[in-house]
Specification:
Blueprint: H1 38-42, H2 47-50, E1 59-68, E2 71-78, E3 83-89, H3 98-113, E4 122-127, E5 133-138, E6 143-144, H4 145-153, H5 157-162, H6 165-184, E7 187-188, E8 197-199, E9 205-207, E10 214-215, H7 216-220, H8 243-251, H9 266-269, H10 278-294, H11 304-313, H12 319-322, H13 330-339, H14 351-362, H15 374-384, H16 386-406, H17 410-451, H18 455-468, H19 473-485, H20 489-497, H21 507-515, H22 527-536, H23 543-552, H24 557-571, E11 581-586, E12 589-593, E13 611-615, E14 634-636, E15 656-658, E16 678-680, E17 701-705, H25 712-719, E18 723-727
Parallel strand pairs: 12-13, 13-14, 14-15, 15-16, 16-17, 17-18
Antiparallel strand pairs: 1-2, 2-3, 3-5, 4-5, 6-8, 7-10, 8-9, 11-12
Helix pairs in contact: 6-10, 6-14, 10-13, 13-14, 16-17, 17-18, 18-19, 19-20, 20-21, 22-24
């Protein structure tokens, strides 16, 4: 057996290989770990710092495990730890260039920084006395997911018994967890496919081959144009070979956004590196799930060009139509199709959202990918109580037989019919009881949505709960609150007059009676009085919904904003005289200025108002959760008392943000502001710059204090063409 030897190069490399920060320091990033940056992997020390003498003194080769590209994997004995490990090295057949060595070490360092149970651990990285690099890692035992699927496709009964859909989903979730973790570190895998996942005999799952992986920050620095892969018809790839592997010899560009045809995303297939993002991995996870469900690669063409063209067009059958005999559940098919949307914006926002949908399916609930209706929820309710429904169905079948037989004898039929009807009533009562037991769950979901100001979702959940149990007091009480907050006073009054299970006395009852004849809601001028009546009736928690519906109607600016101003003064007694101005921003949106109102904390009257630009300088501590509507492009909070940067979805569209002279010291949530173009963080005492600033890919102008001039994060932003403006304070 040939032993692994390190390749002899014609002459020693002229450029020294430096040492990297092999393992990330522990710092706070969303309560997990540090984001990786290009400099973490590129920084290298003198060659002597990586020298480890003669590796043959420590390692004894046993057998070659795999070879491909610029890397061979051997199983070796590690004499220091007395265990078998895997060693990766450049094979003898390759003449390693400086760029090859860089790429080899890049993969080693990147993988070493990804410390997760489902990512292979790196033990050591070193260079032998001849200047050739190698690294050691855990020696994995098992089969790749690609090999397992091949056996399933061939119809192996042993494998179909061992790898049921439930177990395959469990394996897939472990892969998702690994990729979700990698994304929190800023790493994109770029070559996810079943052959890059190994499944051990004891349930262990590892994601392999991070050789194409790159950092989001590296993509941000990419200045080249698209790679014209579509125009090369002559390419013939081996099974599972990546385009990057093929193009390495000609492009000489490390970390090209490659991938494997059939699994790679449309943005990869178009050869445009600037379009690659975390959603690229989500597409490939969807492709992997597709193959787990159908046992077939999602996109197949006669040539590489045809495969790429199909990928760009999204030309592939849904999994349930591709393999109808496998009876793929529609929810799983919907999850796949959402993850594999051609436009990255239409895929899952992140891997965690994909994982949640899988869990929803496993728990018997509707997934977001299905766009569930009431009937979907009802059907799933029945499915979750399958045993009870089966017993009921069986009982009904028995009853039917009994009824049929009863007609043979008039005397016997009467008794049998009565008995059957009694049993049928019992089963009907059981069904009703089952649905009643589910109603509180939907009511709780409605209450949660209401607290999150997701008012439409709250109404939907409450409607489902009332359908399941019309006698639920909590549901009718909540319904009354909703009707009053929507100024549907007559309907609220009808709840009482129809003897629904609600208290026919108390503040809500009096409020409904007072306004029952107000059919179309109160006029703008009377709205502040209505707000006062709500507060007097103990309905302060319902005010956000009241404001939401008030702001959703067609607005007459003068009367509407006058009412809002009076309401803001009512809720903020510390404000002597409110300063407010507004202007029409078009498309139903408004530019609003509420600056210089010291003590203005409660901005709930703005809930539901479509705002394009909000200027709120020098006010109190506003709760930005009340800015519920999408379309907010500019937000100025300079001089406010706000002390944290929120991450609400409606704020994700903001392009200009000023938090100058606030108390916000932690910028970790800035990554949620993906459209941010201009940011002012000057004048903040004790500010800690966050590495997440690097992820603001559209940031063109940053204003901050002079003390950060030499900060590495700022220097990195400067290299990305961000204009940095320094202030003295």
């Amino acid at each position: 057996m040939d032993k692994p030897t390190h390749p002899k190069k014609p002459e020693p490399p002229k450029r020294e290989i430096s040492n990297a920060n092999l393992f990330a320091d522990d710092i706070i990033f969303s309560d997990t770990e540090k984001i990786l940056f290009e400099e973490d992997l590129e920084k290298t020390a003198q060659r002597k710092d990586l020298m480890d003498g003669n590796p043959a003194d420590r390692y004894t080769p046993r057998k070659k495990l795999n070879e491909g590209g610029m890397k061979a994997i051997w199983e070796v004995d590690d004499h220091r730890t007395a265990r078998k490990v895997a060693m990766a090295l450049i094979p003898d057949s390759k003449i390693a260039s400086e760029q090859d060595i860089d790429s080899f070490l890049y993969e080693a360092r990147l993988t070493a920084n990804l410390q997760h149970p489902n990512i292979i651990p790196i033990y050591d990285i070193a260079v032998d006395k001849e200047g050739n690099p190698y690294f050691t890692m855990k020696a994995l035992k098992g089969e790749t997911l690609g090999e397992i699927i091949k056996k399933l496709r061939s119809g192996s009964e042993e494998y179909r018994t061992r790898y049921t859909r439930t177990r395959l989903l469990a394996i897939f979730l472990k892969v998702c967890n690994a990729i979700d973790y990698a994304h929190t570190k800023g790493v994109i895998h770029l070559d996810l496919k079943p052959s890059n996942v190994i499944v051990g005999d004891f349930g262990d799952v590892h994601v392999l081959d991070w050789g194409l992986s790159t950092l989001l920050t590296h993509i941000d620095e990419y200045k080249g144009g698209p790679i014209s892969w579509q125009n090369i018809d002559h390419i013939s790839l081996e099974s599972g070979q990546t385009l990057t592997r093929y193009l390495e010899g000609s492009s000489k560009q490390r970390h090209v956004a490659g991938g494997t045809p059939g699994y790679m995303s449309p943005e990869q297939a178009q050869g445009d590196l600037s379009g690659v993002d975390f959603q690229t991995d989500i597409y490939m996870l969807g492709a992997m799930l597709y193959e787990l469900l159908t046992y077939e690669c999602p996109i197949v063409g006669e040539t590489v060009k045809e495969t790429l063209q199909k990928t760009v067009r999204g030309d592939f059958l849904p999994p349930d139509r591709r393999a109808p005999k496998l009876h793929i559940p529609q929810p799983l098919a919907a999850i796949v199709m959402k993850a594999m949307k051609t436009d990255p914006k239409n895929r899952y926002a992140n891997v965690a959202a994909l994982i949640r949908d899988i869990h929803q399916f496993q728990d018997g609930f509707a997934t977001t990918a299905e766009n569930p209706t009431f009937f979907t929820h009802a059907a799933l309710l029945v499915r979750r109580h399958k045993m009870a429904v089966s017993l009921i169905s069986a009982s009904l079948a028995v009853i039917t037989v009994i009824l049929a037989q009863s007609f043979s004898s008039i005397k016997e039929s009467e008794a049998n019919t009565q008995d059957a009807l009694k049993k049928l009533q019992e089963k009907s009562d059981y069904i009703a009881q089952t649905t009643r037991e589910a109603a509180p769950d939907y009511i709780e979901l409605a209450q949660h949505a209401e607290r999150e100001y997701a008012f439409a979702e709250a109404e939907q959940k409450l409607s489902t709960g009332l359908t399941f149990d019309e006698s639920n007091t909590d549901a009718w009480t909540m319904k009354t609150h909703m009707l009053l907050s929507q100024q549907r006073f007559n309907e609220a009054w009808n709840v009482y007059t129809q003897n629904r299970p609600v208290a026919h006395s108390g503040p809500l009852f009096e409020l409904a009676r007072k306004y029952q004849r107000t059919k179309d809601g109160v006029p703008d001028a009377a709205f502040p009085q209505l707000v006062y009546d709500f507060r007097l009736s103990g309905m302060e928690l319902d005010l956000p919904r009241l404001f939401y519906h008030f702001n959703q109607k067609e607005i007459e600016p003068v009367s509407h904003f006058s009412a809002l101003a009076e309401t803001l003064e009512q809720l903020n007694p510390a404000v002597d005289q409110l300063n407010i101005s507004w202007e029409d921003a078009g498309n139903g949106a408004w530019n609003l200025d509420i600056s210089n109102n010291a003590g203005l904390d409660d901005i709930s009257p703005l809930c539901g108002l479509k705002i394009a630009r909000l200027t709120a300088r020098n006010i109190g501590t506003p709760n930005l959760a009340f800015l519920t509507e999408e379309g907010l492009r500019s937000l100025d909070l300079a001089g406010t008392q706000i002390n944290y940067l929120p991450a609400y979805d409606p704020l994700a569209e903001i392009e200009t943000l000023s938090i100058r002279n606030t108390r916000i010291r932690n910028l970790s949530n800035i990554v949620k502001y993906s459209k941010l173009v201009a940011l002012d963080i000057s004048g903040i005492q004790g500010l800690s710059l966050s590495e997440q600033l690097i992820w603001c890919r559209n940031l063109k102008r940053l204003t901050l204090s002079e003390i950060f001039r030499d900060d590495p994060i700022i220097q990195s932003l400067s290299r990305n063409d961000t204009i940095i403006i320094f202030t003295e304070n």
